[in-house]
């Protein structure tokens, strides 16, 4: 084992998030042959800065609480427009008396108290995944505390991330049999994933239905089904990543909840003395002088209310995409200050088209409301189930306590869900249809991705074959760096042998790059890069694993190449002084990796870095690249100024005590960088085997292939410059 200790400066947000994960202590980490890591304590921040954090945190939470009124609570806050009328329809229209009205208010009061206030505000918001909420956040917590995950490409080193551990580490004795059962049976884990996908799809279905029903109901006066009251509740948890748990608690407990209770209480008092006003309860209960201003505000509020569930939809899709359950889409940050606020253009267009189709096709808020209530209550039902598992496996509470939580809220929510299921023939089928479509897309993508990964795992290139080729790999090694992208975190992917047998020459320095997602919301820059080597030093073949959380965004800042080179240089220097790396066992090279911090690496780098802008009139770097290639690169940069890369030159510092072999390897790395960097990817075609079943051929050859052709390509998603990309075709028979 060895440890990387790099001094660094951190902003206040990073300090807060790191302290939340590490119990107030920061650490940098490294992994050894077993893939495990050891933390090393670094000095804490000064007391003066620590004293400033609470005040800044309070003002930030108050600002976020104010913003959450529209984004999170817009839908719930507009419910007084139509709830009373929606209750007294159908058979209840003949029971409009004073007792019935106060009975309805009692139902409303206890629903608001037990579900939004007790379940979500007090309990569920405490189960956030390092500040993230939603069904996939709960699933991520479960996968990190038990072997429930079906996601490939996970390593032991991932478990040492600062944001990985959550809650107590000791396992409660009563939960052991249930845990062993779920871990042992793959079908049970598959069912768990399907339940999570169903919850995610219902949230997306809400994102389609909510805009149509909110605006139509506020304008037309035709009201929605009884489950409308509980809608904004799930948005409180799903939108958690856009805000903070404290801000959402403050907004609901001190503003939204008392305002709603007072409003419903006032309406009940008015309607008890004015029974005929039930169809127009909200507007009749306000003074006539403010009727039109209130009507305009109510209409605008209904429009804003749609943003709550749309924002939740963006969060859910981003999480699904990062965890391998949704095709690649473009994710845009909408705030420089709040990291979790995102926008997904493709999803926004899809929601708009389907919403318009539903609104124009049905033109009836009662029918749409039936679909709306079913989607809402299904999500809440699933969330309660997942939360009960979190209580057992994450919080390590007694199994009886989790069962009591599950039964208590399932009885309440079951009453609402059963009422919604009765309405399936009267419009509830819309939610089911939308959920089936999105669930099919998610499961097909996850299934195809997993099959493709398994093909790579089972067809790895033997390391003995690679070593038998010698340092030259049996081909010409030309100056330059080749970044070979693969989903494998260990071993040599089969596509590499395809490269070697089809290309007459290869780069003098090869780096196998694996960009993968881990089941945590974010990975700090200090822990993002894992660097190691695959073969002995003369081969100049390295591996770099770049880890992202399911809420991280892979930004195209043009600095990836430079960070990678500096990280490899740091690894070469560190490797020379670690005794366990002096082993001559070639088979043990692959798998020994170090965590290299990418924050302020220029300050601590083994290389001297000089930087300039393309527009500066400075003599360009002398390299072995042809004039034609340089002119093509210049023309590409002129046509794409937003993709312009940082121009950095590396030099080896004067260090008489440096080992000769280390200096030689660093010089080779610098010369290769100056010669140019090429990005090498496989253009894969995934097909089902001839012996596969008809259903598998349908899923892989039609479903998965269609999704791959119509989503963002891997090179685009990874921000790889097109001018430097080399693709080699390969067919995967899975």
Please give the alpha-carbon distance between the first and last residues.
38 Å
Low-confidence stretches: 1-53, 220-228, 614-625
**Order of adjacent strands in the largest pleated sheet:** 9-7-8-6-5-12-13
How many strands appear in the DSSP assignment? 13
Query: How large is the count of helical segments?
Result: 24
Alpha carbon gyration radius: 29 Å
Helical residue percent band: 40-55%
Global mean pLDDT: 78
Q: Approximately what portion of the residues adopt beta-strand conformation?
A: 5-15%
Q: Report the oligomer.
A: single chain
Q: Which shape, going by the Cα principal axes?
A: elongated
Subcellular location: Cell membrane
Biased composition (Polar residues): 19-30
Protein name: Potassium transporter 4 isoform X2
Transmembrane segments: 100-118, 190-213, 290-317, 338-360, 372-394, 399-422, 428-445
């Amino acid at each position: 084992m060895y440890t990387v200790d790099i001094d660094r400066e951190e902003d206040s947000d990073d300090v807060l998030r790191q302290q939340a994960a590490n119990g107030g202590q920061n650490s940098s980490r490294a992994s050894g042959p077993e893939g495990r890591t050891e933390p090393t304590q670094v000095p804490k921040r000064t007391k003066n800065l620590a004293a400033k954090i609470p005040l800044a945190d309070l003002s930030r939470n108050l600002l976020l609480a104010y913003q959450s009124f529209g984004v999170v609570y817009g839908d719930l806050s507009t419910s007084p427009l139509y709830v009373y009328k929606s209750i007294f329809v159908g058979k209840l229209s003949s029971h409009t008396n004073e007792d019935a009205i106060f009975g309805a208010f009692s139902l409303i009061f206890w629903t608001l108290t037990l579900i939004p206030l007790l379940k979500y505000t007090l309990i569920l918001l405490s189960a956030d995944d390092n500040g993230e909420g939603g069904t996939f956040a709960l699933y991520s917590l479960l996968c990190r505390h038990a072997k429930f995950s079906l996601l490939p490409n996970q390593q032991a080193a991932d478990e040492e991330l600062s944001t990985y551990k959550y809650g107590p580490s000791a396992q409660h004795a009563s939960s052991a049999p249930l845990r062993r059962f779920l871990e042992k049976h793959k079908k049970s884990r598959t069912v768990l994933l399907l339940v999570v996908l169903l919850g995610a799809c219902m949230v997306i279905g809400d994102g389609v239905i909510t805009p149509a029903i909110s605006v139509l109901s506020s304008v037309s006066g035709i009201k929605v089904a009884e489950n409308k009251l509980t809608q904004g509740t799930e948005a409180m948890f799903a939108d958690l990543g856009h805000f903070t748990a404290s801000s959402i608690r403050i907004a609901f407990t001190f503003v939204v909840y008392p305002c709603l209770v007072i409003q419903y209480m006032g309406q009940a008092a008015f309607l008890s003395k004015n029974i005929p006003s039930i169809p127009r309860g909200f507007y009749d209960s306000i003074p006539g002088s403010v009727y039109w201003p209130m009507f305009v505000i109510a209409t605008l509020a209904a429009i804003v209310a749609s943003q709550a569930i749309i924002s939740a939809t963006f969060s859910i899709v981003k999480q699904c995409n990062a965890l391998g359950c949704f095709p690649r889409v473009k994710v845009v940050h909408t705030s420089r200050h709040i990291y979790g606020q995102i926008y997904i253009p493709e999803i926004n267009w899809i929601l708009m088209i389907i919403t318009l189709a539903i609104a124009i096709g049905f033109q009836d808020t009662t029918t749409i409301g039936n679909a709306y209530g079913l989607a809402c209550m299904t999500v809440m039902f699933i969330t309660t189930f997942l939360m009960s598992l979190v209580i057992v496996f994450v919080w390590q509470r007694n199994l009886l306590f989790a069962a009591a939580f599950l039964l208590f809220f399932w009885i309440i929510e079951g009453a609402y869900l059963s009422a919604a299921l009765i309405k399936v023939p009267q419009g509830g089928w819309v939610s089911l249809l939308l959920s089936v479509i999105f669930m099919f897309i998610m499961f097909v993508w996850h299934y195809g991705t997993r099959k493709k990964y398994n093909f790579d795992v089972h067809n790895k290139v033997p390391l003995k074959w690679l070593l038998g080729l010698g340092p030259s790999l049996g081909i010409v090694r030309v100056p330059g760096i080749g970044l070979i992208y693969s989903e494998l975190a260990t071993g040599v992917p089969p596509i590499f042998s395809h490269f070697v047998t089809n290309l007459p020459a290869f780069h003098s320095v090869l780096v196998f790059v694996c960009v993968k997602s881990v089941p945590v919301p974010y990975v700090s820059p200090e822990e993002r890069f894992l660097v190691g080597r695959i073969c002995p030093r003369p081969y100049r073949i390295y591996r770099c694993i770049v880890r992202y959380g399911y809420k991280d965004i892979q930004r195209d800042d043009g600095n990836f190449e430079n960070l990678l080179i500096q990280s490899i240089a740091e690894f070469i220097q560190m490797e020379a002084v670690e005794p366990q790396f002096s082993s001559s066992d070639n088979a043990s090279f692959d798998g020994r990796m170090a965590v290299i911090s990418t924050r302020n690496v220029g300050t601590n780098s083994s290389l001297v870095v000089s930087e300039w802008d393309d527009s500066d009139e400075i003599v360009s770097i002398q390299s072995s690249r042809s004039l034609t290639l340089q002119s093509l690169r210049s023309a590409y940069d002129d046509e794409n100024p937003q993709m312009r890369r940082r121009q950095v030159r590396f030099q080896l510092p004067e260090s008489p005590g440096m080992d000769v072999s280390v200096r030689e390897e660093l010089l080779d790395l610098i010369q290769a960088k100056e010669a140019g960097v090429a990005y090498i990817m496989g253009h894969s075609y995934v097909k089902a085997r001839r012996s596969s079943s008809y259903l598998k051929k349908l899923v892989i050859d039609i479903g998965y292939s269609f999704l791959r052709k119509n989503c963002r390509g891997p090179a685009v998603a990874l921000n790889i410059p097109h001018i430097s990309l080399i693709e080699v075709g390969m067919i995967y028979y899975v």
